[in-house]
């Protein structure tokens, strides 16, 4: 058979057919390009830059552009985007066909997703200029190909592309007839597209649309986030107001209950005092009345002859003493009467009667004076109790304004699920303060606070759910509220010193919370029972770089040995060093707001 390949030794006036090779890693794009051109035009190694090679096939000019793999891990997203733009430029004024190369024995879900990848990077319009090229036909029998075609739904997959599909052998087994048939199918697709090719203008329109959609989506996301924040703040205000009202109501109820008990106690004591005073008063009055009646009789006897009898004198003397003891006053009048000699006349007897009446008047006055004295004492006691009650109420009012004392050290735990955050919190506090690592559910809280003492310092530990690259605004507010006025240190918890996923785990946190967050971060490696002593040289390279950016602070924990308080003491010393390095200042909400402001400014500049 005559060869369909011809060397591209001289220029030709025949129209040029331009094709771009696409595919995942290892499918053989470069080898396919060499098979089409009939020579070793491309190096069959990993392609990291777009490359164009030209040749003569079937007496026509062919241009083939090889591109980096769709699923490349060597190039960054921005670099891959630059190479895609370059491939459109190399195929100027634009490719007639995108050949999507797939190995028949490697048709996986990743290959199926290439449809979406082409739409996202070249636009919906590019699909009508695309053809699937299955390679490795020789590896399947006709029966196996038929089963593969049916089981993998190749017909449905290829119908999404304007050029359908084509099938050739591997490079070493490919025949000229297969290349001829491939070019014929490409010509059919070009005719179907009325001779048009994919153009740079189409690519620019797609990129512009992509940017507009991304901007619109971001604006919509911001709008939703703003609305959610507004709802959250409103709900929080309502909850705070409800808590305030409930607190006031509860406090008023407690004060009323206490006041009721106090007044009840005072009333009981006052009733007891009054009852006791009444009983005492009644007994005293009864005894005074008896003495007064006895003295009246004795005074009467003074006017009789029997009054000189020794017995009468003794009885009058004793009665006078009793009355003196009761009234606390001197009653010398009756004593003078008792000392009167025998033979006192009628005039002297009258004088003694008048003195007796005068004495009884003094007793009545003393009785009234005692009654007034008791009333004054009762009023003074009530006044003293009232002053005590007012003083107690004033002290209670002062106590309402006294807030809880801030913790000496406030720590926030961050890390992926199962890294050992909660166990670390338990080890620090020396008790089962937290359960297993918090894993967010629709009804779960984002953060949990526990307090304790480490040595002579009060410590607050906040455990967080952190299976994303960052906390959103409401989650951050909850964390800051629990550790108000702000954390002294962030413990970034991982399970291994060879942890390599630093870029996707920790740097997004740094970008979201800023350099001030990084200054207060300490990397904490759990499972210390497995790793033993870990030095900086034992860390994974990327982890070591991140630790250096944190000031070199990292620590190893064995959460299986919570009784070993030495490791906790060493950690607290490192945290204290971090606090001292930051001038004793903790992370604040103002620092977070400043980072968000700068990010918004950068985003606005990039969009404009």
From TrEMBL:
InterPro entries: G_AIG1, GIMA/IAN/Toc, P-loop_NTPase. SUPFAM superfamilies: P-loop containing nucleoside triphosphate hydrolases. Pfam families: AIG1. Residues 229-388 are annotated as: Disordered. Residues 14-207, 406-596 form the AIG1-type G domain. GO terms for molecular function: GTP binding. Residues 297-306, 325-334 have a biased composition (Polar residues). PROSITE patterns: G_AIG1. Keywords: GTP-binding, Nucleotide-binding. Residues 229-244, 257-295, 308-317, 336-388 have a biased composition (Basic and acidic residues). Transmembrane segments: none annotated. Belongs to the TRAFAC class TrmE-Era-EngA-EngB-Septin-like GTPase superfamily. AIG1/Toc34/Toc159-like paraseptin GTPase family. IAN subfamily. This is AIG1-type G domain-containing protein. It comes from Pygocentrus nattereri.
